[in-house]
Q: What sequence folds into this?
């Protein structure tokens, strides 16, 4: 994926070199000087880019390198940057004593079910928002906008009471179902379907197809890119979600990775009591599936068309 | 007939009721059940002394009066606003810088930096908190080790509330950059090259072109980034929980943690709900202020 450059083309790039002199704007630089200025720009921009990458990558790199150290070496001075005695003991311990397998399974169930349901619900709502102008459809659009602000974090106490009253407490469905509605998902599909010409629908209507059939057979298949993008975003959100599992789960049988890891931190005594060796392994195991998904679908995540859609 | 057709065409989709209703009904139900219902009972309970069990009794505005006299609430609120005031500008500057570098034709070898910059988005707030806790550990962290190697003293990243907040600001901005960066990349790519060429002919320096061409043209995106980042900051909880549980003691308890603790640790559901509505009100005011500023600048330009 090459990046199309939109940054200023330099004066030197202009087709008519003499133009600058004629207009008396800038002194015409000798050719060698121009090359020097250009290459110093390459040098400084590239240096800055890689410096920032090093800065951004360092916390993760340090975390990953530490996870391969034996627990005895984690706190030993002097600190070595690279593991001196390479080991995967932390990972094995996390897997056996910390139930990472079970938490992984729960998280996988929650993230995949919620994602599938989010895709269906968002595509339907997004299509209705884009193609029907009943007043109540527009009203619901305002409601979705409002829901971005009225998030669950803000009203978590009454939300907990609702979860308890509808008997979803300590039930994976209690994390899956409330997460199905996604404002971003609705906006994404709304934006997508708005760009599909109405003629297509009109033509199908002329052929006598009913409205829902038009959506399912004609419009939904067109929206494949939107489905893929939302699937990735939604999966990552559900995987990393903390607030809903925190409200819904208290039984370790149903813990997701986030709750499991948090529990490992905050149930032990303050500070050094934390078993960092296990914690590092468990955290890396938690990250790996998402990194794989990201690397496989990078194209869809980084697609700028989609980002334009996310801006409401 | 022709007349009838034009009316039909003009009114168009308004004829359909069944299809749009079926299409939006799942989300309407979810919205009603998990947003409207909790918001409604929350509002009602905020005027009661409800503890989560039994029958609540109506106590009027007592919760609201109490919270404004509570130093713990004021501390949490001010700390949250400070957190947002530090994170939002840092996130905007960093994400715009990275986006500019990634679309610049002068920067070479973008594939790996792009993946590295995006990586934090994949990391959950919980693991993010641990990541920075590990890096800035007081007795074992790499940062303190480097400081000591350079002849300094170990810095109290955990025991000093302000330093802990500083690390949290770095962590939040680090994690929030990726998404904002994508928004900025989309905006930067949409600027027609012609504008820059015209500015270059006028002899504008790089910095002038950035200020006079780029910044005004990506203003809408900047507005969205600021809005999303400030809403996100005001509701941060897991990051802080994993970093040091809002410590030392309660120094960095932000709003959501305060609400959670009043409800689940002290059983004050009525009082906690009142806090929720104050937070909601603040979020709405913040959003309206930002929308108003954005509108006014749009008129001016």
A:
């Amino acid at each position: 994926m090459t990046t199309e450059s939109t940054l200023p083309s330099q004066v030197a790039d202009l087709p008519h070199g003499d133009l600058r002199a004629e207009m008396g704007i800038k002194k015409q630089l000798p050719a060698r000087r121009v090359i020097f200025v250009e290459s110093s720009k390459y040098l400084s921009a590239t240096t800055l880019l890689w410096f920032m990458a090093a800065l951004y990558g360092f916390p993760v790199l340090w975390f990953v390198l530490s996870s391969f150290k034996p627990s005895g070496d984690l706190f030993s001075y002097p600190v070595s940057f690279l593991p001196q005695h390479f080991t995967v003991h932390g990972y094995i311990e996390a897997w056996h004593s910390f139930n990472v397998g079970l938490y992984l399974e729960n998280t996988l169930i929650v993230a995949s079910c919620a994602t599938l349901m989010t895709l269906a619900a968002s595509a339907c709502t997004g299509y209705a928002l884009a193609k029907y102008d009943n007043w109540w459809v527009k009203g619901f659009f305002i409601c979705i906008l409002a829901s971005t602000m009225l998030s669950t974090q803000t009203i978590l106490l009454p939300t907990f009471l609702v979860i308890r009253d509808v008997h979803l407490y300590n039930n994976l469905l209690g994390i899956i179902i409330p997460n199905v509605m996604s404002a971003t998902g609705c906006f994404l599909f709304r934006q997508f379907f708005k760009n599909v010409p109405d003629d297509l629908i009109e033509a199908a209507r002329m052929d006598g197809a009913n409205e829902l059939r038009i959506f399912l057979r004609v419009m939904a298949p067109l929206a494949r890119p939107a489905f893929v993008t939302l699937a990735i975003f939604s999966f990552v959100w559900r995987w990393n979600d903390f607030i809903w599992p925190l409200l819904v789960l208290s039984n370790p049988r149903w813990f997701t990775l986030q709750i499991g890891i948090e529990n490992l931190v905050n149930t032990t005594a303050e500070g050094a009591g934390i078993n960092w060796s296990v914690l590092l392994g468990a955290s890396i195991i938690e990250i790996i599936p998402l990194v794989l998904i990201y690397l496989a679908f990078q194209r869809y995540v980084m697609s700028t068309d989609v980002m334009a859609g996310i801006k409401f | 007939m022709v007349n009838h057709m034009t009316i039909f065409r003009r009114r168009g989709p308004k004829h359909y009721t069944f299809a749009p209703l079926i299409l939006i009904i799942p989300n309407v139900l979810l919205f009603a059940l998990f947003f409207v219902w909790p918001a409604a009972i929350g509002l009602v309970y905020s005027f009661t002394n409800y503890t989560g069990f039994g029958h609540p009794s109506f106590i009027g505005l007592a919760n609201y009066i109490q919270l404004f006299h509570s130093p713990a609430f004021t501390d949490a609120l001010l700390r949250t606003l400070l957190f947002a005031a530090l994170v939002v500008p840092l996130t905007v500057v960093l994400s715009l810088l990275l986006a500019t570098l990634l679309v610049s034709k002068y920067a070479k070898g973008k594939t790996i930096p792009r993946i590295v910059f995006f990586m934090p988005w994949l990391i959950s707030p919980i693991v993010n908190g641990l990541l920075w806790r590990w890096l800035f550990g007081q007795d074992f962290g790499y940062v303190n080790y480097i400081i000591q190697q350079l002849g300094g003293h170990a810095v109290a990243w955990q025991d000093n509330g302000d330093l802990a907040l500083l690390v949290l600001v770095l962590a939040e901005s680090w994690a929030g950059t990726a998404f904002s960066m994508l928004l900025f990349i989309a905006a930067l790519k949409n600027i027609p090259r012609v504008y820059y060429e015209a500015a270059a002919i006028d002899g504008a320096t790089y910095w002038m072109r950035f200020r006079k061409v780029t910044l005004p043209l990506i203003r809408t995106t900047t507005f969205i980034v600021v809005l999303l980042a400030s809403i996100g900051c005001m509701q941060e909880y897991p990051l802080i929980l994993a970093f040091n549980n809002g410590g030392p003691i309660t120094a960095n308890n932000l709003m959501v943690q305060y609400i959670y603790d009043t409800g689940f640790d002290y059983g004050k559901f009525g009082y906690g709900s009142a806090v929720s509505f104050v937070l909601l009100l603040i979020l709405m005011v913040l959003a309206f202020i930002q929308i108003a500023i954005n509108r006014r600048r749009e008129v001016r330009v």
Q: What stands out?
A: Chain A touches chain B through 113 residues (CB under 8 Å). Residues 1-24 of chain A have pLDDT under 50 and may be disordered. The first helix of chain A runs from residue 17 to 23.
